[in-house]
Amino acid sequence: MKPFTYARPDEASDAVAALVADPDARFLAGGTNLLDHLKLGVVEPSQLVDVNRVTSTEITELDDGTLRIGAGVANSDLAADSRVRRRYPAVAAAILAGASGQLRNMASTGGNLLQRTRCPYFADATTPCTKRSLDEACSAREGWARYHAILGASESCIATHPSDLAVALVAVDAQVQVLGPDGARTIPIGEFHRLPGDDPTRDTVLEHGDLVTAVDLPAPAPAVTNSTYRKVRDRASYAFALVSVAAGLEVRDGVVADVRIALGGVAHKPWRATTAEAALRGRPATDEEFRAAITAELEAAEPVESPLGGNAYKIPLVTGTVVSTLRGLAGGTS
Amino acid sequence: MTTTIPLSITVDGEQRDLDVDPRTTLLDALRERLAVTTPKKGCDHGQCGACTVLVDGRRVLSCLTLAVAKDGADVVTANGLAPDGGSHPVTEAFLANDAFQCGYCTPGQVCSAVGAIDEARRGMPSAATADLAGDDVVLDRAEIAERMSGNLCRCAAYVNIVTAVEEAASR
């Protein structure tokens, strides 16, 4: 590990200023992903700016019913909050589907959104990776692509975003509060993460020095209160998603009044299934309609064929998982 | 040369002062600087749980924690769980139920179990909790397996580990 200096400011503006003054400085929150990358040589910062004194660890309810989650709230505390569990069940379930008890105690809300892909070539500094350096090539396209993207990928990168929480936040239309060099701003979660395009080094729209200060959950619509998260993985616990679904459903008189579908493990960002949602609104809440809607969404899928294992299996896996999850939310057996 | 940073932490009830390079993990500070070898280095990447300790009462991975970030913290290893060097009920349950073979993962398993039992008593849910909106957690075998999934045992003593945690939680 290359040497770095350590700073622990008492004001958020000082933390932002420290990064602005040093292009190679990084924020440190829970550290669960960053420490791993420091050891692997994936990142080599000059300075770590500890933000644990400047990010809130409180969850507060605003006058308009918004639930504001401080960026420093531990994942385990977020999942345990009774308001989150009752009003936004997909959010609590998504957190609990990820990592381990120890990691959830350490990982912060802001850091969860900013974790990097688990593409094995990204984590292995001895293999080429466009996400580490635009001068290199993607090793996954011709390599071990089983965990990789089927939607929205580019020639340069087929990595997926690993966060479970972020998928649920997309389904409930969360807003990310950011403090940057020019002041505070709000970014809808659906616009927070990027597709790789020709610059896969950037996972989000944040600029250097932007600090996530809070995540806002808007007052829950009925489809958010009736929501859940379903994750499919290689083992029953403590594994990243092959695919996952955050879904919410409101049915009136047998007809879909409102539906939210966000997919994990399929793209460089949490994938809001807007085509499927549009196809379902106003339609009967039946398996046939659910299947037709997600099939329409996945027409854009471009699975990777690779000698070391491709990912075409994700298309039927997403289809079945979405149908089953929506059936459960409609009152049937999931 | 990197400048070192002064650090003061409590380890198993004893205050310890030292200067650390900012790169030092809490695990390395404990083992290599303070000769507290109870937490073990397994993977050193947060995948195995052998380094689990309690920091300010919560179970965490000491290999993914920077020591400098924990100035002033109360650190408890498996050796300091019971007051006055006594034996903790979770440790006793591990012994009574043969919940280990080689023992390398055991200090991490024990600390994790203490943390997991405390989390369940405080009503914190897990992925195995049937009613997410409920306030009570029943620590059955499925709950224990899920809550302990961050602790790997290469001897695969899992069946007895779950029994030990079940027994300790019921006391």
Topology, please?
The complex is a heterodimer of chains A (334) and B (171).
Chain A: E1 5-7, H1 12-20, E2 25-28, H2 34-40, E3 47-50, E4 59-61, E5 67-70, H3 75-80, H4 82-87, H5 89-96, H6 101-106, H7 109-114, H8 120-123, H9 165-171, E6 175-180, E7 183-188, E8 211-217, H10 222-225, E9 227-232, E10 243-252, E11 255-264, E12 271-272, H11 274-280, H12 287-297, H13 314-329
Parallel strand pairs in A: 1-3, 2-3
Antiparallel strand pairs in A: 4-5, 5-8, 6-7, 6-8, 9-10, 10-11, 11-12
Helix pairs in contact in A: 5-9, 11-12, 12-13
Chain B: E1 5-11, E2 14-20, H1 26-33, E3 52-55, E4 58-61, E5 74-76, H2 89-96, H3 106-121, H4 141-147, H5 158-169
Parallel strand pairs in B: 1-5
Antiparallel strand pairs in B: 1-2, 3-4, 3-5
Helix pairs in contact in B: 2-5
CATH superfamily of the largest domain in chain B: [2Fe-2S]-binding domain
- Estimated structural class of chain A: alpha+beta
Content of β-strand of chain B: 5-15%
Beta content of chain A comes to: 15-25%
- Determine the mean pLDDT of chain A: 97
Main beta-sheet strand count, sense and barrel state of chain A: 5 strands, antiparallel
- H/E element string of chain B? EEHEEEHHHH
The tally of beta strands of chain A, per DSSP, is 12
Number of domains as seen in the coordinates of chain B: 2
CATH evolutionary superfamily of the domain at 222-329 in chain A: CO dehydrogenase flavoprotein, C-terminal domain
Distance between the termini of chain B: 52 Å
Q: Architecture of the domain at 222-329 in chain A, CATH level 2? A: 2-Layer Sandwich
**Which structural class best describes the helix and strand composition of chain B?**
alpha+beta
Most extensive interface, chain pair and sizes: A-B, 38 and 44 residues
Q: Span between N and C termini of chain A?
A: 47 Å
| Oligomerization state | heterodimer
Domain 2Fe-2S ferredoxin-type (chain B): 5-81
Keywords (chain B): Iron, Metal-binding, Oxidoreductase
InterPro entries (chain B): 2Fe-2S-bd (IPR002888), 2Fe-2S-bd_dom_sf (IPR036884), 2Fe-2S_ferredoxin-like_sf (IPR036010), 2Fe-2S_ferredoxin-type (IPR001041), 2Fe2S_fd_BS (IPR006058), Aldehyde_Oxdr_Iron-Sulfur (IPR052914), Beta-grasp_dom_sf (IPR012675)
Protein name (chain B): 2Fe-2S iron-sulfur cluster-binding protein
